[in-house]
Amino acid sequence: MNNLLGRLSRTIAATAAIATLGFASAARAELYAPEEVPSGGSINGVLSADGIPTGLGGYAFDYVVDLDEGDRLELEAFSDSFDTILTLIGPNGATVAENDDGPDGTTNSLLYTRVSMSGRYTIRVRAFGAAGEGPFTVNLVRLRPI
Q1: pTM confidence score
Q2: Half-sphere exposure of residue 46: CA atoms within 13 angstroms, side-chain side
Q3: Predicted pLDDT at 104
Q4: Does residue 7 sit in the same domain as residue 49?
């Protein structure tokens, strides 16, 4: 009888542990919810430990935008607090374009790209290396032929 109760106890404990892990995983999955890029295309944020760990000791923030095949974009990231890196990630998860320092000699980021497939794209802003926190601005401009 004690053996049966012991097995039943272990089964209940294992089931509770699995249920707890499943709940924790579901809660973690809900934490990643990038914001939509506002219709004006300008984002003001603060890079901090509330962001996504980059694996390099720093953090990143993601924003999503729906783009159409053939769209031409100008993306800029500015910060007086850290050296920005700006990445555009395609619907398939591949990096489409990335820039660390723009051509103006500052540590702000600037990139131009043409979208090759329609879908939901991710704009990621992060600091160069592990260092960097503070306010930033990202501007998305859809370029139109004249």
Answers
A1: 0.76
A2: 4
A3: 80
A4: no
